[in-house]
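Please go through the protein record below and see whether the fold suits the sequence. Record follows.
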Amino acid sequence: MATAKGKAVSETLTEEAEEIGDPPRTIGHSTNLVGLPTDFLASCDFNDEPCPVHISGVREMNPRLFEMLALASGIVEAGQAFDSYTKAMFALEPEQQVVRPRPSTAARRYRSSYLDLIRGWGFNSNAAEGAVLKGWTESRFGIFPTFHKEPICRIATGAWTSYVEEKMASRFHNNSIYVQLDLLYEFCQWAAPQLHANKTHLTLYRGVNGFDEHLITRRLDKKRVVMRLNNLVSFTRERDVATCFGDVILTVDVPLQKLVFFNTLLPMHALKGESEYLVIGGDYLARTSMM
């Protein structure tokens, strides 16, 4: 049964959808690293008829990784191969990590890892780790974030400045972190068709209690709207899980090409409990329903 809060959110959705004007003219940069126009990549048209997406040069520069993946007997072995490769490539094993020339009591400086970012995102997507992940998405796919702690309506605002300061924090940029994320995305694109054979899309869910993070750009009917989602956004495969996060459930069909990370990609990680999927954002057709 819908709660009073949920009904209020649903009414807000209807009111906002009725009063919307033109969406922001600029959704991202004019260039990116995937060779597709950003406006198309971030559009419902792409979602309806997706095409392959690859970050330029990643597979070509890491042929040994994909040779290892081709020899894997299943997704678990492939995940182990990916983990071993990234640990060797980016010196992520404890014995490989660098100790700064400080007194013996000084803490060891660990190298930045994509797993640290994913773990941080799981706790709070608006923390510094979330800013780095959104910054990587902006850099590679050209799509601007629309929310980080508060709505980001345009460049040269306080919200944008705060986001830029956090995404560039040296704490996370000491170990080619964007390159690590490039490999993660390409591994995800290799693995998704293996796990979801004969599928082009996954139906995913997100629970919300408000629409500060979700700009409604077009209303199709009482249940269907086009939303401009943040450039990187979390969904879940389980509708019951989504109800834990909000009274209104957004249901979207996400093309496999927009998956960055998901709960069965690696044997162990921080997002398993909520069946969480990290998805490249932009404009999506969303179906809304009460919990």
The chain has one domain: 4-290. The mean pLDDT is 86. The chain has eleven helices and eight strands.
